[in-house]
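Side project, low priority. Logging it here so it doesn't get lost.
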Amino acid sequence: MTLNELHPTQLTLGKRKVEEKRADLKKLSDKKRRAHMAAQLYPAVKGPDKKFYVLDHHHEAMAALLEGAKEVGVGIVCDLSHLAQKDFWVYLDHPITAAGSIATTSTASASLSALCPRGSRTWRTILIEAWPHRSKQKAGLPSPMSRSSFFEFLWANHFRDHVAASLVKRKYDDATEQALTLAPSSKSAFLPGWAGKK
């Protein structure tokens, strides 16, 4: 299936994560890149108007699109084409807009190329990649594998409120350090998975 036929089920991406994925693709020879892309399988559902919506691997899909890929392997999870637009997005629990609000059906069918970067997506990367390593060195950090719904997005929004976006862009490592220092503090005690000391 062509990448242009796929529609996202989220409206934002972490720009840093996309660039990392692009860098990984650039390291591969043309032959290995084709083999890598052929081995990828993007889970998707068939939605209203018989459009296909990718459920996961949005960063990889965007990186592939920016690197000139035309087609990807898609695995259809289920056919929801019989649902009305509103019912379809309720079923998928609605994607989130760049402003942090629930997407409307008018914005929910944007193409992959229309996805925009958002700071909280970068924070999500920190939670998944930097957090486990730090947790082994420093007590008081919650587990990013919490069962709480939207755990990582709640923490991401918290970080965004306390760590300047300009710092993330200029000094990513310093921003990460500031966020991981904030995590076990009393300011974060209201969040799910908090493991600091009261």
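Brief comment: Strands lie at 6-7, 12-13, 41-46, 52-54, 73-79, 116-117.
Revisit when time allows.
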